[in-house]
Automatic annotation (TrEMBL):
UniProt KW keywords: Membrane, Transmembrane, Transmembrane helix
UniProt keyword Transmembrane helix, yes or no: yes
Residues spanning the membrane: 88-105, 117-143, 167-186, 206-223, 298-321, 333-359
Protein name as annotated: Integral membrane protein
Amino acid sequence: MTYRRALAPAVVGALALAGLLWWAGSSAHALSLPGATRFFGPDQANRLAAWTMPWSTGSPSSARLTDPAGAPGHGADYAALRETAMRVRYTVLVLLFACGAVPLLRRLSDRGAGRAAVAVAALWGWGIVAAVLAVTVSAPWMVASGGSAAFRLLPGLASAMSQGRELPVGAALVAAAAAVGLMTLLRPEVTPPPGRSVPTPATARLAATLGTTVVAIALAVLSNDRVAGRIQTGSTGNGQLSEPGDLLRQWIQLGAWTLPTGSAPGRWLLYRLGDVALLALVWWGLRLLTVLLDRVTYPAYSLGAVAATTLGVVVSGLWHSLLSYQGSTGGPLLYYVSVGSGVSAALVFGILAGCAGTLTVRIRSRAQQPAPPTP
């Protein structure tokens, strides 16, 4: 499939993702109505409102924006900054999803249920990452709209970047299915070129293993609580760049784990099953991508590695939330707290894992090529 044919499904998926998040954000203010509070309960309604407000384009009624402290009479200016932040957020979301979906759809465009399923999973993970990046890019405008951008700038940016990560998990799946479905309809009736070379199973396993090793090192070392504590306290900075610990941890920590204690080692092992599932999903995803891509390229394989790492982080977060849920009458949404917390780090180490896997495939494939016949 050419880039031109892959562009239409990518744009449709991007618009579907943006439309679903816009629709959810437009319902944010309805959650404060008495009926919503009675139906969901006050705690769950507040949790849903916290999920939807980062995608709401409406002007909040908070006094912090209508009459900000230290800048009386400039509430409209700060509200305009928030509107700019939301325009930037949705624009970046559409552009990033489309730009990442095009190489994935192009390289996974051959016929087959397996390729279609892998394409949906890859676009699902990339849609979550695109939403997180959109929030990240628009965070400076959002922080400035609060009227206190000069006070603890980096912690404020870290807080703004960590918002809005729950809704894209579901919305990105719908957008991915829509994009792959349209790609199936637009796919031309052509057979793959006969000269296409497929990596050997040994090469695919080696590439997946090396890529998973990158993610495993990041998960085992950088996600430990002692390392996190040293990053938090050891990075002080100066002036407006002080306290960068929260921002650094957001981009290098795939999760959070502690050493086992003598009181409940069994429960500690249960929580570690989420980390095992993350690594297993990364390995299996990289293994499939090596074989199913019509050509292993750095952009496509790195995007696939980012998607696999992101889905692994989501699965691990769901598992931790499930273990935290004790059947309380407060509702299950109160325990849905971990999903999406490591997506920023999944982008960083997914790219590194993808580059390592692609380099492995290139080297092994070049070494296995038959030597030209001598005259």
